[in-house]
Every structure is written in C-alpha cells, then in structure tokens.
C-alpha cells in the first residue's frame, strides 16, 4: 500500500539528516520521484526511510515540516552555520542525556540525598579569579599534580573523575549512544550543561581533541556553578556576544591556566611556537588556550594573537584524532561512571527494568550489561 507523504516532508527529513538524494539512492532508488511527488513510498519504505534519516516516523505524517528547537538554552555563536537547524545527532544526544538525568534525579531522591551546594552558588557579578579558585578547590584541582601527568588523555580522565566525585554526571562521547555511524560534529557543538541541584550533567563532545575537551569541560563547570543550562560551541579564542558565555569562557581559562601562574612561567625570550608547546604540556590544555592566555597577559597584541591563532588552528585541524580502547571503559565514559554505577546497581536490585537500563545505556545484550557492571565493580 502506497502512502501519500508530502514531498516537502521527505525533503526536510533528508536535509535535516545532512544527506543529498544521491546519498540515499542505493537504499531508496525512487527518492527523487518521491520528493517530486510523482511516486509514493509504501508504509514499510517510510519506516525504513525514517530510520535511515533518524526521523521520528510520526513527523513524516505532519501537514508541514516541524520547526525543531534545542530543548535547552542555545548559546552557540551566531556565526556557527549549524545554529539555525540542529542536527538529529545533536537533538538525540540532548534527549537521551535528559532522560538519564531524570532517572538519576529520581534515584537520588529515593536515596534521600540533598541538593549539591555548589550548583547555582555563584553569580555573574562574582570575580573570575574567585570563581575559578572556588571550582578548583571543590574539585581538588592541583596544577602541580596535573603538570606531572604525562598525557592529555590521562589529564582529561583525571579532570572528569574529579567532577564525578563531587556529584556531577560527566558524559563524554563522539557518537550518538553507541552508534559509530552517527558521529557528533565538534563544529556544530562542543558541549552542553544541564544544571540541576541533584543531578547536574555535563556532556563533552568526544570527537574533539583531548585538549579542546579539557576547555569544554571547564567551561561547562562554570555553567553548573551559576546554575544555568546551555548548549555551547566554546573556543578559548572567541569573545562571545553573550555575557554568560563570555563569563564562562573567562572562568574556564582562569581555572585551567591561572593568569598569575602563566606570567611566572612564560619565557618571553623563547621562540613563541616552542614556548606555546611547552606551556600547553605544562597546563595540559590546547595550544589555542595558551595563545589566548599569553594575549590576556599582554604578551601578544590582538593582531599577533589572531595571526598565531589561525596558524595553530590549521596545524591542529591536520592532526587525526585517535580512537579505540577498551569498550567498557569507553562506555562508562560515554554515560558517566557515576550514572552507570547507579543504574547497574538499581537494575540488579530490581528497582529498574533491564529494558529501561538498556535504553539509557544504548545497548541490548545482557552479557554487555553484566560486563559493564563488572568493569565498574558493581557485581
């Protein structure tokens, strides 16, 4: 049986998913005819098409294409080409994080836990330095300790664990759930924060470089401290037109690279490229952050900063990102160790259905669930 789906809805779904007609032609040979209205798909073909374009099938039966909006405040820059239309990958990532947060909030209530005191404890009128010091103290963030860590990956892992220990759900992934065909694009967003007294959540786009993820996490921590949810496309170089983003960027930079420490460490007589690389390794942050902080400290003029920034950005863009690793460690990082431990324990105790746990974790095999539990020390 053929279904008279409006051509504009099929075209909207395809474009929303970032596909050209040619991208889908092998699976749907008549797609161009469908979009012209000269042919109609069957119901089974509509279901397959919805799945292929990550579209809720009900959307295809609407009278006109819906206007989708990001369900949390969108503080991305206006120059970002994706800002007008969120991708299904971004939307689905936010939706599943909201579902996880809702589950964890209910779990914390059932345990009789009190709201975390640091969520919303700071206002924009507070000084940048005092706020960064407040966050650093709460996390146990020690600069000298970080300097001794050999790699950015280990430094990021330690940073995430510090946030996890004080009650923040930090989820870091480069894909939607566990679907490696649905990659998240750092050019669309780098992270977001969903503030909540019992279940503050931070998502970091794991497709970005480790050093860039460090800055994103620091930026989203600032959002948690002021109690404001936000979708961000944060870069250390940008001076956002939004006062909250501008403030969070400044706090993140001061948290990771205190200006007083940078001034003591910065060797003006050394070749700039060499010095930037050394300081990036010292503070375990992106070289772009270091360039920004050298500029903030008066070591580079605005013109010199942008010249060096563009040059450094070009180098970073040419470096391929690594992948792989232990699945269960990766899985715990994707959903937050704190969340995973609570969910596995609750499920094993019979408080949460396996079906619901699998949906929130993004897999369907009992053996995978059990192995995840063992890897987290939850038998």
The gist of it:
The protein is built from 18 helices and six strands.
Order of helices and strands: HHHHHHHHEEEEEHEHHHHHHHHH
Low-confidence segments, given as residue ranges, are: 78-82
Roughly what is the average pLDDT, rounded to an integer?
Answer: 89
Shape: globular
- Most strands sheet: 4 strands, mixed
Order of strands across the main sheet: 1-5-4-6
The total tally of domains equals: 4
- Give the terminus-to-terminus CA distance: 50 Å
Q: By helix and strand content, what is the structural category?
A: alpha+beta
What's the Cα radius of gyration? 23 Å
Number of strands: 6
Number of helices: 18
- The percentage of residues in β strands lies in 5-15%
Kindly state the percentage of residues in helix: 40-55%
Question: What would you say this structure looks like, in words?
Answer:
This protein is 53% helix and 6% strand. With 379 residues, the chain is an alpha+beta fold. The chain folds into 4 domains: 7-61; 68-256, no CATH class; 257-319, no CATH class; 327-375, no CATH class. Strands 1-5-4-6 form a 4-stranded mixed β-sheet, with helices on both faces. Strands 2-3 form a two-stranded antiparallel sheet. Strand 4 and strand 5 form a beta hairpin.
Please give the structural blueprint.
Elements: H1 7-16, H2 21-24, H3 31-36, H4 43-52, H5 88-110, H6 128-139, H7 143-148, H8 152-165, E1 169-173, E2 175-176, E3 179-183, E4 191-194, E5 201-205, H9 210-226, E6 230-232, H10 243-256, H11 259-265, H12 272-283, H13 287-296, H14 302-317, H15 327-335, H16 337-348, H17 354-361, H18 366-375
Parallel strand pairs: 1-5
Antiparallel strand pairs: 2-3, 4-5, 4-6
